[in-house]
Amino acid sequence: MQDIQDLTAVLRSNTPIVVIETYEEYRVIELLRKVSNILYQPLFSWSITQGLMRVDGGMGRQKFNCEPGDILGQIKSTKQQGIYVLCDFHPFVEGAPKNVRLLKEIALEYEALQHTVVLVSHEFVIPPEIKRYCAHFRLSLPDTAQLMNLVYEQIEKVRSQGVMLNVDDTAVAKLADNLRGVTFDDARRLAHKAIVDDGAVTHSDVDSINRGKFDLLDMQGVLHFEYDTSDFSQVAGLHNLKQWLSHRTPSSQTQMLVDKPKGILLLGVQGSGKSLAAKAVAGMWQRPLLKMDMSALYNKYIGETEKNLRKALELADLMSPCVLWIDEIEKGLSSGSSDDGTSKRILGTILTWMAERKSDVFLVATANDISALPPELMRKGRMDEIFFVDLPDAEIRQAIFLIHLQRRQLDPMQFDLAQLAKVSLGFSGAEIEQAVISAIYTAKASEREVEQSALVDELMKTRPLSVVMREKLQALRHWAEGRTVNAHR
Q1: Strand (E) positions, 227-293?
Q2: Prediction pTM value
Q3: Low-confidence residues of the chain: pLDDT under 50
């Protein structure tokens, strides 16, 4: 009903040209049919294959009006007022000055003829000559209640075909929640595919829905759908971060009473587990994880970089509820003398989105170099909290060895984890993992079992970043003390 009211208001506003960008062409036609009855105006639709057709009864198809120039000429010359829907007309406007001029003349004569042209395409770039005569209209997307009904409709449809389905009602609610942001038609197709693929509706279908949803809204490399979200049981340490996140685990009850969590900044040395923690947030909250590639945003053409960013953030909003991970955010925001102010405009776009977004997108930004981050991003209110991920202490290093030995089918009982933790003083989690991997390769090359001595030898041969970049790490620790929350304890 809201779409009908809004579209009626647009058509009553004496706007000659209305642009609707959507894939739901049939839904637009049906909506306009109802609006035309309210306004007592005839409704016509046109496509290059079907010609002109009276939608609300009366005149039938007119094949001689298949040519774009012909239909515009007829609309301009006819004395009968009406609503004319031109489907997929975008190719006949781009690089076609005659058609653009005809549209402008139709608009200029609106007061006398009362012709409203509705341009319906998946995408439409409005020529500057007619921009001031145009209005945009956007179809509403289904809400959670409508999506719940849609999923149950698809369940009944499959059951009517004699298929026995195992349906988990809590999974249906989760599916409906994750289908938000797509059109009715797309939601129907995604739900149907998830149901028939495994003959059931369970929580395992949520991943399938999210992947299909992301594919529909493809961002061509700027955003990546991360399929491998981690479990926090596979992340050693980070006790403060885990507790903070557990207290803010999304639920419908808590989100009705308090503001939704906005996001966190994870600051720390390379290899300390920031990326793993970002993945674990999505796994812990059972949300899709989107990773933004800051380097893919940049385009040599002025304005294209900011456009890419806006599209990426719009996609994240459509994918909500989700986790948006911006890795090494400082690399995209550090300004230089040769970027024509692009980094500042990117910062402004991100800050505006962070302050004004209404969607349920939790932002996880990771950074290695605090000096490259602008102060505007660091202030309270932009992020819920700033966590410093320091190098692991002896207890956490033991846990890291335990995780990586078990992951590679090595019995931890055969190793002295306390000694390994002592020898690996100053090592990051990533450096410990690489030492385990190197020891395995060395042992296989010598056709021996992996032993304690092999691990100790690899650790002794490695110069960790804490040694190589001691001064920089000390400066980072000094800055973080008193300004951030230690993620470990």
Answers
A1: 263-268, 289-292
A2: 0.70
A3: 252-254, 337
Q: What token pair was written down for 299? A: 């385009």
Closest-CA residue to 116 (of 125, 124, 106): 106
For residue 65, give the DSSP letter.
G
H or E element at residue 123: none
Q: What is the DSSP string of 9-31?
A: HHHTTT-SEEEEE-S-HHHHHHH
What would the 3-class secondary structure string for 282-347 be?
HHHHCCCEEEECHHHHCCCCCCHHHHHHHHHHHHHHHHCCEEEEECCCHHHHCCCCCCCCHHHHHH
> What does the DSSP 8-state code read for residue 162?
T
Q: Which two tokens stand for residue 15?
A: 């706007």
287: closest CA among 188, 385, 215, 363? 363
| Per-residue confidence (pLDDT) for residue 489, from 0 to 100 | 76
Angstrom distance (rounded) from CA 420 to CA 407: 17
What is d(CA 185, CA 32) in angstroms, rounded to the nearest whole number?
18
My answer on whether omega of the bond before 321 falls inside 30° of 0, hence cis, is yes
Token representation of residue 162: 């004699």
Spell out the alpha helix ranges (H) of 19-143.
25-39, 68-77, 97-108, 110-113
| Burial of residue 296 (number of CB atoms within 10 Å: 0-12, 13-18, 19+) | middle
Q: What residues are paired with 380 via a beta bridge?
A: 383
